[in-house]
Design goal:
The chain is α/β, with parallel strands linked by helices. It is about 10% helix and about 15% strand.
Length: about 325
C-alpha cells in the first residue's frame, strides 16, 4: 500500500476482537517523518551507514531505514509527532475503561474510528486530540458526550448514530428564542467537597514556586497501602497488568474545570460537584455539521456548586439581546 510519508494509516486493528488498547499506543506520538516532501520513484537517496556509499532507488528505501543506526544522519527538520495518524478500531470489544488514556496523548491523530464497540461513554480526555478531524462513535452504548468535545477546533465530521442518546426535555409552553439553550436539570453532588477531594485537588495543582504539580514531589511513606495510592495514579505511572485493573487510572488532565466562575485558573478535580446536560446542534460541534436541530447531549461538569451558573446566565443574555426597550412605551 502506497502511503504519504507524512501520514500513517492504521486499519489492521478493525474487526480483530480487541478487548483493550494498551498504554503502548502512546508511542504513536513519537512517530517522525524523515522528509517533508514525497519521494518520487526515480529519486535516489544515499545510504547513511559507515562504509562505501551507494544509492538506492525508491523501492529500496525500506532497506535504507533498516540499516540506518546513526541519529546524527536524521534531517534537522525532523520533529517528533509530525506524522498524521488515522486510527481505525471498529468492530471490536472495546469498553471505555479498556482504552488507555495514553491514546489521547497522541495529538497527531486526525481520524479516530471506534464504531461498533461497547463504549458506554466517551472519556473527557478526547479534548486533548486538538488535531482530530473525524470521529466515528456509531453503534455503541453512548448516552451523551463530554463537554470537552467542544474543545476540538478541527473536528468536522462526527458520527453518533446509532447510539442510545438521551432525549432533550419536552419543550415548555412558553415561546423561546431559537438561540436559547436546551438544558436538563442541574445535578448537585456536593456543595462542600470531602477532605479526600480537597487534599487530592491540592496535590494535583502546580506549586506556585516551582510551577510543577505538587504530586510529583510527593513521597510515599514506608508501607503505604497500595490501594490508597490509586486515586493519584496517572498515565505516567507504571501500568499494572491489564487483568488486575478494573478501571483506568485517574487522568487529571481530563478533569479540569474551565468555568467562567474562576477564569484566572483551570482547576483540577476528581469528582465533579455539579453536572448538567445540554443539547447542542451538530452544526455547533463540527465545522461541517448540518441542520439546527439540538439533538446531541453533552455533559458539563464543574468543580464547585456555582461553576455551571454561566449556562443560565448566558441564556438570560440571549433573551436580553432580543429585548426591545421601545416596547415599554407602548
Amino acid at each position: 500500500m502506497d502511503l504519504d510519508c507524512n501520514s500513517l494509516l492504521m486499519s489492521l486493528s478493525s474487526g480483530k476482537g480487541l478487548c483493550d488498547v494498551p498504554s503502548s499506543i502512546g508511542d504513536l506520538s513519537k512517530l517522525v517523518s524523515l522528509s517533508e516532501k514525497r519521494l518520487s520513484r526515480r529519486e535516489t537517496i544515499q545510504k547513511t551507514q559507515s562504509g562505501p556509499l551507494r544509492t538506492f532507488t525508491r523501492h529500496d528505501s525500506s532497506r535504507l531505514l533498516q540499516r540506518t543506526h546513526s541519529e546524527s544522519t536524521l534531517p534537522a527538520t525532523v520533529r517528533a509527532g509530525n506524522v498524521e495518524v488515522k486510527l481505525f478500531l471498529a468492530k471490536n470489544n472495546l469498553t471505555t475503561d479498556s482504552i488507555s488514556h495514553t491514546l489521547f496523548s497522541v495529538a497527531s491523530i486526525s481520524t479516530l474510528s471506534l464504531r461498533q464497540n461497547k463504549l458506554d461513554r466517551l472519556p473527557p480526555a478526547i479534548g486533548r486530540l486538538v488535531n482530530l478531524e473525524e470521529l466515528n462513535l456509531a453503534t455503541n452504548r453512548i448516552t451523551h458526550l463530554p463537554a470537552e468535545i467542544l474543545l476540538l477546533p478541527s473536528l468536522r465530521n462526527l458520527r453518533m448514530q446509532p447510539n442510545p442518546l438521551l432525549r432533550p426535555p419536552p419543550p415548555s409552553l412558553e415561546p423561546t428564542s431559537p438561540t436559547a439553550r436546551v438544558l436538563g436539570p442541574l445535578t448537585t453532588h456536593f456543595r462542600v467537597p470531602s477532605l479526600r477531594e480537597i487534599v487530592t485537588r491540592f496535590l494535583l495543582e502546580a506549586d506556585p514556586e516551582s510551577g510543577v504539580s505538587r504530586i510529583k514531589g510527593w513521597e510515599l511513606p514506608p508501607r503505604f497501602a497500595s490501594h490508597l495510592f490509586a486515586p493519584f495514579e496517572t498515565t505516567l505511572a507504571k501500568p499494572a497488568p491489564f487483568e488486575q485493573v478494573q478501571r483506568q487510572p485517574f487522568d487529571p488532565l481530563a478533569n479540569i474545570c474551565r468555568s467562567p466562575a474562576h477564569p484566572e485558573q483551570a482547576r483540577y478535580y476528581v469528582e465533579p460537584a455539579v453536572e448538567r446536560l445540554e443539547w447542542i446542534a451538530l452544526a455547533d460541534i463540527t465545522s461541517e455539521g448540518a441542520g439546527g436541530k439540538k439533538d446531541i447531549p453533552i455533559m458539563h461538569r464543574g468543580c464547585s456548586a456555582g461553576c455551571l451558573d454561566w449556562l443560565e446566565e448566558e441564556q438570560a443574555e440571549h433573551e436580553l439581546d432580543g429585548f426591545d426597550p421601545a416596547e415599554l412605551s407602548d
